[in-house]
Hints:
The protein is α/β, with parallel strands linked by helices. The chain contains twelve helices and eight strands.
Amino acid sequence: MSDFRPKGIWGAVLLPLSDAGNIDFAALAELVDVLCGSGVAGIYTNGTAGEFFNQTEAEFDKITEIVLDRAGKAGVPIQIGVSNSNPRVARHRLERLVGSGAVAAQVTLPDWWPPSIEEQARFLAGMAAAGRGLPLILYNPPTAKVRLSVPQIAALRADAPDLVGVKVAGGDADWYTQRRDLLGDMSVFVAGHTVAFGRPLGADGAYSNVACLSPAGAVRQWEQIETDPEVARDLEDRFRRFLHETMIPLARDHGLSDAALDKAMATAGGWLPIRPALLWPYSGASDAMVAAIRASANNLVPELLRV
Length: 307
């Protein structure tokens, strides 16, 4: 079993698009450089915010090549997301990562048809074989067709020693009691807007939506959880208010996806060369929505936007 266990705030690599709607790879390289300089513990590709669900294999390979090159030169750890609705494609992606310099690969369970418990175990065993010892992080988002409980995660890990971490929404105090009792030294990452609550209870970090708005601000909050926990919790409460008053209404009233919300926050944060547009056929936030997000963030969580 690998001794790698991710911790801290990891930043998502989002996809800058050209006017024609294609991935702007030159801007992507610049984005990776900025993200690596923000103080995050590491960066990761092809999560929801990185639009993993809408990439060609050529795009996946090019994104991976650029991120490994730029982050590798900066000495920043890299996790590569290999998730795909087709599990055989995900397995082939993982095979191509072996020896690449990535510290881990993120995977999701097959998602077109909900896999049974037996199929989940078979999938992770096959991914472990393909990765040849590369540590695996299981991404189980709220949108997954199979939502795993802590005991289910523990059962999967018992048969998959290369599964060293999990990325989940988190939960209440009882959920964290189960986490401590059943998951041991497994790295447990939760939503960025709950990590100040969760870190004292057993959260090891966040692949952070807060970092979409401001990676440097998310890192400062992570440090405050130890140095000034009351301030960190107050900031978390205000960020959750920002989500409920601004971001959730955008999703509800305009049908914006989670990826669109993350990209809109990043655009509003102004820390990277990106626009809110998503890959075809999905809708991104308008300029007016981005302006409203920035105004709300300046009002409720101004310290996050401080450079």
